[in-house]
Backbone:
C-alpha cells in the first residue's frame, strides 16, 4: 500500500531524537512499527515526520538497578524480553506474558515502548506495569520525568507522553520475597487480541489486580487474595466494558471476575 | 543522518547481493523487494500485518515486510524465499519436504511459511507439533492446508537430525 508522503529521520542519540520530535508539530516516534505503520496505511495516522528510534543504543538495553529493579529500554523487543535472563530472574511473569503477544514476526519487531505508548486497551504490558509498580521515564528537550502507571495511561491510545516527548525506559521493581505475579486472559484465538486480560500481584495476602480490555486504561483493584474477596471486588468495581461482536459487556464483566481469580491464584502459587 | 528526508539512498543486502537504491520514505519494504529489486516471491497478502505472506528474514529474524518502511531496513541483510535454495538451485530439505508432503495448495502463503519454518528450525531444530503450530502462527493459509504444512516441517526437522 502507498502511504501518504512522510519524512524520515534516524537519530543516533536521545538528545537528537527529542530535538527532532520537538522541531516539528506533527513528528512521531517510530519504534517497531507494528502498530504505527499499519495505522499510517489506513491514514488514521498521517504524521509529517517519523523519527526512527531503532539506532539509539541506550534505548535497546536491559539492565538491573541497585535494588535489583529492571531497567528496560523503550526499544527492547518482545523477543529480547523473552530471551533475557535478567528479566526472567527479576520478574518471570514478563517473558511469560510477552510470549503470548501476537506471533513470532510481531514479537521480533514490536517493542516495550510501542506497546506502552500506543496504549491500545487490549495491550498486554499496561496491566503488568500497573500491578508490578513499574514506572515510565519520559524525556523532553528540557527535562526528564518518571511517572507510574496511574498517571501514564490516560485514555485509548493516549498516554502522558506529549508531542515533543518520548519514553526512554521503564523501571520495574524485582519481585520481593513473598511476592508473586499472575496473568490470565481470554483472547480471540490463541495469543490473539484480548477479550479480557488480567494481571495480578500478590503480597502478604493482598492482591493488586489490573484488568485490561474493559476500559480506556487498566482498571486497578485491590482485594484480599482469596476466592471470595477477589470476584466481589471486581463486581464492586462496576466495570463498564465495551459490548461488541466478540463479547457482550455482560460476558466481559463475567470474564473479569473469573480471570481475576485465576491470575491471583497463579500469583499465590508462584511467590518468590 | 542530517534532518528529516523525504527520500534517501539505502543499501540493503538481499540474498547475498547488495542493492543501492534511492527510496521514498513512505515505501514499504515489501514493495521495495517486489517492485524495485524485482524479487516477486515475497507476496502481499492482507497488507495489514496479519497474514504473514510477506515474511522475510531481516538480519536473521522473521519480520512482516509490509509493516516496515524500506528506509528502516537501510544497512540490513535480508533473505527472501528466492535466497533459500543453494546457488545450484537445489532446494533446502524444508522446501523438499513441502513438496513431498504436499504442503501447498494455491501456494500463495508458501514463501512466508517457508521463511517462518526456516527460522523456527534454526531456533529449535526439533520442535514439537505444538511448537511448530505456534511457530507459524503469524502465517495464514487460506486454503487451510495446515495439516500438511505442519507435517512437512516435522519431517524436515527429523531429516535434519
Residues:
Amino acid at each position: 500500500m502507498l502511504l501518504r508522503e512522510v519524512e524520515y529521520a534516524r537519530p543516533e542519540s536521545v538528545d537528537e531524537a527529542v530535538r527532532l520530535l520537538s522541531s516539528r508539530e506533527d513528528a512521531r516516534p517510530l519504534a517497531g512499527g507494528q502498530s504505527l505503520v499499519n495505522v499510517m496505511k489506513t491514514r488514521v495516522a498521517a504524521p509529517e515526520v517519523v523519527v526512527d528510534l531503532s539506532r539509539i543504543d541506550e534505548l535497546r538495553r536491559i539492565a538491573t538497578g541497585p535494588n535489583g529493579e529492571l531497567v528496560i529500554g523503550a526499544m527492547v523487543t518482545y523477543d529480547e524480553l523473552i530471551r533475557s535472563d535478567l528479566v526472567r530472574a527479576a520478574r518471570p511473569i514478563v517473558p511469560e506474558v510477552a510470549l503470548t503477544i501476537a506471533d513470532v514476526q510481531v514479537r521480533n519487531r514490536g517493542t516495550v515502548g510501542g506497546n506502552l505508548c500506543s496504549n491500545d486497551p487490549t495491550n498486554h504490558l499496561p496491566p503488568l506495569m500497573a500491578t508490578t509498580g513499574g514506572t515510565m521515564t519520559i524525556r523532553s528537550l528540557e527535562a526528564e520525568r518518571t511517572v507510574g502507571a496511574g498517571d501514564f495511561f490516560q485514555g485509548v491510545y493516549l498516554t502522558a507522553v506529549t508531542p515533543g516527548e518520548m519514553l526512554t525506559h521503564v523501571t520495574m521493581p524485582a519481585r520481593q520475597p513473598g511476592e508473586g505475579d499472575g496473568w490470565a486472559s481470554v483472547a480471540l484465538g490463541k495469543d490473539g487480541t484480548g477479550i479480557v486480560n488480567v494481571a495480578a500481584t500478590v503480597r502478604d495476602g493482598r492482591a493488586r489486580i489490573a484488568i485490561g480490555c474493559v476500559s480506556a486504561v487498566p482498571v486497578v483493584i485491590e482485594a484480599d487474595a482469596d476466592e471470595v474477596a477477589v470476584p466481589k471486588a471486581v463486581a464492586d468495581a462496576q466495570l463498564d466494558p465495551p459490548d461488541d461482536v466478540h463479547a457482550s459487556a455482560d460476558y466481559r464483566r463475567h470474564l473479569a471476575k473469573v480471570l481475576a481469580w485465576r491470575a491471583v491464584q497463579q500469583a499465590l502459587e508462584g511467590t518468590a | 543522518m542530517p534532518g528529516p528526508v523525504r527520500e534517501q539512498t539505502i543499501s540493503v543486502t538481499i540474498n547475498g547481493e547488495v542493492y543501492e537504491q534511492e527510496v521514498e520514505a513512505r515505501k514499504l519494504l515489501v514493495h521495495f523487494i517486489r517492485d524495485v529489486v524485482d524479487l516477486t516471491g515475497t507476496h502481499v497478502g492482507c497488507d495489514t500485518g496479519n497474514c504473514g505472506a510477506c515474511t522475510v528474514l531481516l538480519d536473521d529474524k522473521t519480520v512482516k515486510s509490509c509493516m516496515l518502511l524500506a528506509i528502516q531496513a537501510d544497512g540490513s541483510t535480508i533473505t527472501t524465499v528466492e535466497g533459500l535454495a543453494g546457488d545450484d538451485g537445489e532446494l533446502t530439505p524444508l522446501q523438499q519436504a513441502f513438496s513431498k508432503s504436499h504442503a501447498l495448495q494455491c501456494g500463495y502463503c508458501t514463501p512466508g511459511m517457508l521463511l517462518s519454518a526456516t527460522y523456527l528450525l534454526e531456533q529449535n531444530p526439533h520442535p514439537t507439533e505444538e511448537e511448530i503450530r505456534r511457530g507459524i502462527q503469524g502465517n495464514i493459509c487460506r486454503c487451510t492446508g495446515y495439516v500438511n504444512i505442519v507435517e512437512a516441517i516435522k519431517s524436515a526437522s527429523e531429516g535434519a537430525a
About this structure: The first helix of chain A runs from residue 14 to 23. The CA atoms of residues 12 and 57 of chain A lie 8 Å apart. Chain A has three domains: 7-52, 57-172, 180-269. The two ends of chain A are 49 Å apart (CA to CA).
